[in-house]
Specification:
Elements: H1 11-19, E1 24-27, H2 37-45, E2 53-60, E3 63-70, E4 74-75, H3 77-83, E5 89-91, H4 94-101, E6 118-122, E7 131-137, E8 140-144, H5 146-153, E9 156-158, E10 161-162
Parallel strand pairs: 3-6, 6-9
Antiparallel strand pairs: 1-8, 2-3, 2-5, 4-10, 7-8
Length: about 160
């Protein structure tokens, strides 16, 4: 994979470039009427939905936590809480997620967040040489090795996604 920098960049691409991580950018025309940002990305990029991961922000015992799961599935909140040693998890308030990460809903990246949050990457990511995650803007994805995503975010890898 060649290292590429997006014109103008996003905090996610700036973080990847600064870390010297190999990645590939994928841009597509975002349709505001699309019901699922992640599935739209998979279809637009011609990539299997099990290789495109969405970034979800949850509240685990009062602390915002990021979960990175395949777009084709959903987040298992109980498994997320357990993965970080918590008791209860619920989806975070969208406004709090946007304010804390610095990204808008549908464009939240696990990388380059305004405030670094605890992160859990679904174990299924390890089955792929590369995965795609939001690059910090709707219509922009970054493809990278799962191990690089885990290293850059300090993530825990655990089975937190449901098919």
């Amino acid at each position: 994979m060649a290292k590429k920098k997006a014109a103008g960049g996003t905090p996610a691409t700036v973080a990847l470039t600064a870390a010297g991580t190999s990645f590939t950018m994928h841009a597509y025309e975002h349709d505001p009427a699309s019901p699922s940002y992640g599935e739209e990305a998979a279809q637009a990029l011609g990539v299997s939905p099990d290789r495109v991961f969405k970034t979800l922000v949850a509240d685990v015992d009062g602390e915002l936590t990021v979960a990175v799961v395949p777009v084709a599935g959903s987040l298992d909140l109980k498994a997320l809480a357990a993965a970080v040693g918590g008791k209860r998890a619920a989806m975070a308030d969208p406004a709090a997620a946007e304010r804390t990460t610095g990204y808008v809903r549908g464009g939240i990246s696990p990388l380059g967040q305004r405030k670094r949050l605890r992160t859990v990457v679904d174990a299924s990511a390890s089955a792929h040489a590369t995965i795609c995650v939001s690059a910090g803007r709707r219509g922009l994805e970054v493809e990278l090795a799962p191990a690089d995503l885990v290293a850059l975010t300090g993530a825990v890898v655990a089975p937190v996604g449901r098919a």
